[in-house]
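Key idea: predict the complex, not the pieces.
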Amino acid sequence: MATTTLPTRSRTREWLIRLSAYLAILVALVFTLFPIYWIAANSFKFDIDIFAVPPEWLPRNPTLKHYDEAFIQRPFLRYALNSFLVAAGTTIVSVVFGTMAGYALARFSYPWQWRKQISFWILSTRMMPPIVSIIPLYLFFNYFDMLNTKSALIIAYTAFNLPFATWMMKSYFQDLPVELEEAAIVDGDTRWGAFLHVALPLARPGLAATAIFCLIISWNEFLLSLIITLTEQSQTLPIGIAGRVTQYKTYWGEISAAGFMACVPIVIFAFIVQKHLVRGLSLGAVKG
Amino acid sequence: MLKPGKGIPAASLRLGGALEHWTERHLRYLMLAPTMLILLALTIFPSLYMFYAAVHKISPNPDLPWQFVGPGNFARLLTDAQFHAALRNTAVFTIVSVSVEFVLGLGLALLLDRFIRRLTFLKTVLMIPMMLPPIAVAITWKIIYEPQFGVLNEIMFRLGLPLQAWAGDVNLAMFSIIVADVWQWTPFIFLLMLAGLASLPVEPYEAAALDGASSWRQFWDLTLPFLKPVIAIALLLRVMDALRLFDLVFILTGGGPADRTKVLSLYIYQVAYRFADPGYAAAISLFVLFVTIVLSTWFMKRMRLAD
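Result:
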């Protein structure tokens, strides 16, 4: 008889587990989304409503005032443009050289254990905390009169985007069958031609994902820009935002508007590369 | 492995063919060279330069010469109470935040893997925080933690709990930083674990189920060992990121109150710029670099990541 009661009991138990699982996922969703909603909501409120106690959960009088303050009256559009130009420059440099290096490390053999050693060394440069290079970089850019320039930022950002791009592209090229390139060489193409005409087109999705990741990493960067740039003409969006959090006053509405706008392109990009996220975040180590 | 220079076509024997031939033969070095040179210039050179800076007293006035002080800056590390506080704070932050992120991320991945069929959309929504600019994350949490009109104190009030200063409170400041970091980076662990779970083989589980192993036993004896490589990568990258924490502290607490959230990156920044002592900052930087190199090398060698 026990056999008839057991399934019912375990079914109730299974059902309870399922319910608590859904509940946990719901909590995670709310915890994840609420802060994003909150910064967006605050960016559309008048100052007086931002300071309201109890807080106004939905903006009652939505306004674009803070967007006007940040992007029209203050130079946040300029900051955003700087951010974009620096990110684009860094991405081009990193993807071009990183693709070649990644291909070389994926396909060629080297004397001794060079392939392994070099891969390892390139990865370890990515592990280097940016703070440890700021002093030499600062003195270096100061010496060459390059402080407050976008080129200085591009050079500094390349230091950690290039290892990333190399490892990403290495992992994509390793996934491609080598036979296609061999066939092209048999057909009379050069080794370089096989890379350019066969491997590269096949790696296009990986190339796009790598480029988008480089854009995101550079767009988000804060510390190096904080040290290298002091003028409106060169500062990036994160620095502009941080500059409105002062010891005496925090411009809540303005930073909410600018902060939210800084997130929008990133979220769009993230959705575009969602298939490649795992690989990108693990520097090609986990295929996902 | 392909041998470069195997099939030079007749076309390349025209004028300039010699150059092309040379390029083709050394392709494996030529393709690697730009990256190697750039990275050497951007990492090795600064590191060497830092050794030079670290044994000098550097005046903020660029016209004054550097004054050689030998190991003086390194000796200061032993007695500098603020440096010790920064070291302790960084260790506490790294250990606590990465552990919490790991437990939450793995737990959530197990739940989703088991109970949700169509994952893609949910996955993408849950991973948004880690893509956002850290500065935007910092100001978002600054608004939430704000003692007067922040949402968190409103929730505390509704629950009948005492209101707190959060990031401004001596005892809660580090906690506040950790919560914001956990919010941003749990998705990272979660996503990698989910990828790991998706690649698990089916057969061992079928065998275990036949043997009547509980799901708890299956988790410890099968899932965790299978996930080990992915876990190692996730933890390595998280620890390296946690050690360089800067943006959140810079905006949320500025290292205060009472140096409770002053982490190494922030302290180096302050020494270099606010206290205008780049020589000493270089000495601290070298210490941090040494610790990261030892940690990451040990980790990567152990996991054979370079293969």
